[in-house]
Write a structure and sequence with these properties.
2 copies of one chain form a homodimer. With about 200 residues, chain A is an alpha/beta fold. Chain A is built from 7 helices and 6 strands. Chain A has a domain of about 110 residues: Rossmann fold (3-Layer(aba) Sandwich). Chain A has a 6-stranded parallel β-sheet. In chain A, helix 2 runs parallel beside helix 3. Chains A and B meet through helix 1, strand 1, helix 2, helix 3 and strand 6 of A and helix 1, strand 1, helix 2, helix 3 and strand 6 of B.
Chain lengths: ~200, ~200
């Protein structure tokens, strides 16, 4: 845990307070477990601060976040709103069936909504869960992502999760943690279980 | 994310279901951010399953978990109980001031309570936050930890967080993720901020 003592103070013309409150682009990447759970753990801190939280789940793994979704939605009813958007079941802001839709178009539609939300500063914390995949698959242009994120207004913290984060994304990020698998029950033939994997 | 397909099935005489539901010893270690946040993210899944959750915070960093504590306590009032014990402010089950107490004795007292709770199966998920430190400092005997954890009854999942987890603990663990710091705002002189670090 950081002890609040930077090793050196940059000559950037900012006060410590200004520098401290800069919005962060956070990336959780790597092959290990904990990328998304750490993002949702961060959401607890954001909730406690009264920040509106937006979760965007990319890829069809939407089904895997049942526990986090129900818990955070419950908190959202009692405090700052938590808005949950899932690509796998069709984005919540479009009222059409997406059962036959194209995954790439779906991903791009999600990204378009994120851009709108960033412009209007809808949330203070945005979790873009498994967002590295649609970027890596070429569904969402990395240049657009980089430009949009670097020019976002106000104080909007962003957490992006997923394996193999694009090098340019890592380069632009303020905080990057790589989750490495040292050991997993799957290695000894144990499947995922409720309460742990979802 | 595991796709539910173990590479090989062990010859351990267990059914897939029995093997799947074995209690896990999980360790989040390494120098990167996300060890504790991922543990608290897991707690959201446990809460959704209706599991009683016990959190034991070791070391004086107790002050750093305000957001998680308030959010999980709020959830605990609406669902399965979440019980929060902090060494830094004196353990909740002993009603004495610990302001002058010895840290090593405090840590050992926390561990004794964990042993009692494991025996009585008070919780289904136990988070031992920053538990690696009192082990490494020799305050809590590693052999006692290993024996206690390996003989715990029932289905009690345990998550231990902290840097430099003891090799024997890693060896006994079922799931180990190492959080590696690739980048941190502290590196460019930015201090920790609310909603992100606490």
């Amino acid at each position: 845990m950081p002890q609040g003592k930077p090793e050196h103070t940059p000559d950037d013309g900012l006060t410590t307070r200004q520098r401290r409150n800069r919005p962060l682009l956070i990336v959780h990447t790597g092959p290990g477990k904990g990328k998304s759970t750490a993002a949702f753990g961060l959401a607890l801190r954001a909730w406690n601060q009264g920040w509106p939280i937006g979760v965007f789940q990319f890829v069809k793994s939407a089904k895997w976040r049942i526990g986090e979704e129900r818990a955070l939605q419950t908190l959202g009813e009692l405090g700052p709103p938590v808005t949950w958007h899932k690509m796998g079941e069709g984005w919540s802001w479009i009222k059409k069936s997406t059962s036959e839709s194209d995954h790439a178009a779906d991903a791009l539609e999600g990204w378009s909504q994120i851009k709108r939300d960033l412009l209007s500063q809808t949330y203070r914390l945005l979790i873009l869960d498994e967002f590295t995949y649609p970027i890596n698959w070429g569904w969402i242009p990395i240049d657009d992502v980089l430009t949009t994120l670097s020019t976002r207004p106000g104080t909007q913290h962003i957490v992006i999760t997923g394996r193999n984060a694009h090098p340019a994304l890592l380069s632009q990020a303020d905080l990057v943690t790589e989750m490495i698998k040292l050991k997993h029950p799957m290695d000894t033939g144990q499947k995922g279980q409720k309460g742990i994997e979802w």
